[in-house]
């Protein structure tokens, strides 16, 4: 994670450049106008950024990148406004420092995401109104194997959860299929108990791909989970009971 000192410097630099943009009045880069769509920004944040970043109001718990509430709490306390945070986030999306992938969202979408993060970073409480409704809560259900098959899909909106929290299956051959409609990659693996060795691990998939595990299970307790860094810790796991 970045040192506080380095982040302060970045915030100051961007504050200066956001000012310059304001003077130039360049339409496309106008981060100060009201044209940002926060609802769209939140949806995109959850789908494209949340797997790597924690942001409380967005309900994301990714750990590959810095926690964005913590990252901006100090700058906000130091008196930088939310417009500045917005500018820092926009800059980071377009020209990321080091290890973050470049331009995950572009143009108006980048403006929307930056505006949302700028609006809610380090802000206590919960989103309300249209923002609260922007991202559907993952409704987890239980599932039972049918004809030796179990379907345990990933949340189609890219939240770090499967749509199934617990499943049952009879002993014998079992195929687990996990469809992932989101652009964030996931897989599915099965282990004995909660920390045993993997009995099988499906391919990493996104955009409609299916991660598939074929195993022969005996009666007992198992855990299915996503092996991508940080995804299990953020909630992408569930229990399989074999009878
Ligand atoms: C694949 C993981 C990944 C994704 C996806 C990702 N980030 Fe990042 N992000 C990182 C990492 C890692 C860093 C830390 C960069 C460094 O210091 O090396 C970072 C840093 C940042 C920072 C700087 C935080 C600070 O400490 O100052 C911001 C802001 C940020 N990301 C916003 C976003 C937004 C917005 C998105 C979605 C459009 C996004 N990130 C998507 C991994 C990711």
From TrEMBL:
Residues 36-167 form the Cytochrome c domain. It comes from Conexibacter woesei (strain DSM 14684 / CCUG 47730 / CIP 108061 / JCM 11494 / NBRC 100937 / ID131577). It comes from the Bacteria. SUPFAM superfamilies: Cupredoxins, Cytochrome c. This is Blue (Type 1) copper domain protein. Residues 190-212 are annotated as: Disordered. Keywords: Copper, Electron transport, Heme, Iron, Metal-binding, Signal, Transport. Residues 1-20 form the signal peptide. InterPro entries: BlueCu_1, BlueCu_1_BS, Cu_oxidase_CS, Cupredoxin, Cyt_c-like_dom, Cyt_c-like_dom_sf. One of its GO terms (molecular function) is electron transfer activity.
């Amino acid at each position: 994670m970045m040192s506080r000192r380095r982040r302060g410097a970045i915030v100051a630099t961007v504050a200066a450049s956001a000012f310059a943009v304001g003077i130039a009045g360049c339409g496309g880069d106008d981060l100060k106008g009201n044209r940002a769509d926060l609802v769209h920004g939140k949806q995109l944040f959850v789908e494209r950024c949340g797997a790597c970043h924690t942001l409380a109001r967005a309900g994301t718990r990714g750990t590959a990148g810095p926690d964005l509430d913590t990252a901006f709490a100090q700058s906000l306390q130091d008196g930088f406004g939310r417009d500045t945070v917005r500018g820092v986030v926009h800059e980071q999306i377009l020209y990321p420092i080091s290890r973050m992938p470049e331009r995950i969202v572009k143009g108006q979408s980048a403006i929307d995401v930056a505006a949302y993060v700028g609006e809610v970073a380090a802000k206590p409480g919960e989103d309300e109104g249209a923002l609260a409704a922007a991202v559907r809560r993952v409704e987890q259900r239980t599932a039972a194997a049918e004809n030796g098959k179990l379907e345990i899909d990933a949340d189609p909106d890219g939240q770090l959860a499967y749509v199934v929290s617990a499943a049952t299956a009879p002993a014998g051959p079992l195929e687990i299929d996990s469809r992932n409609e989101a652009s964030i990659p996931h897989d599915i693996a099965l282990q004995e108990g909660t920390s045993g060795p993997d009995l099988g691990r499906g391919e990493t998939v996104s955009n409609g791909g299916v991660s598939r595990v074929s195993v022969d299970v005996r009666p007992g307790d198992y855990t299915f989970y996503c092996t991508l860094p940080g995804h299990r810790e953020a909630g992408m796991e569930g229990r399989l009971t074999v009878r």
